[in-house]
Amino acid sequence: MPKKVEITEEQRNMVRQLSGYGITQDQICSLLDISRNTLTKYCSPELHIGKAQANAKVAANLFKQATEGNNITASIFWLKCQAGWKDTSTIEVINAESDDSKFRKLVTGLQQSKLKAKERGHTIN
User: Fold this and answer.
1) Cβ-count burial of 42 within 10 angstroms (0-12 exposed, 13-18 middle, 19+ buried)?
2) Both 58 and 99 in a single domain?
3) Does a structural domain hold residue 88?
4) For 81-109, how does the pLDDT look when each residue is reduced to its tens digit (9 = 90+)?
5) SS3 content of the chain, % helix, strand, coil (to 5)
6) Comparing C-alpha atoms, which of 15, 81, 26 is closest to residue 48?
């Protein structure tokens, strides 16, 4: 028969707090001297709530920094994560038709040179 486990309110609060700090489930189990199955069976809500509360607090702080603290890095991070901003490189092609024509002339010239050299018995690689 499996041993009966009782999780106290103090332990539940500890799980919520540690989860919010980013402590792994294995480390929480070590601190409470319980198995991972026991932790997830009896403290699943605390694991999720702790992480959600911590994320909300960090997000609120980031938002405050981005909107009130003149923190450009926080503003950029927020916009990348929340507004779909991304770092991109743009290559602008100017007068592509002219460049294409020049390229074709170059290739044609090379082909003709190769043919003339072949007719004279020379080889060009």
Assistant:
1) middle
2) no
3) no
4) 989 888 887 777 676 667 778 888 888 98
5) 70, 0, 30
6) 15
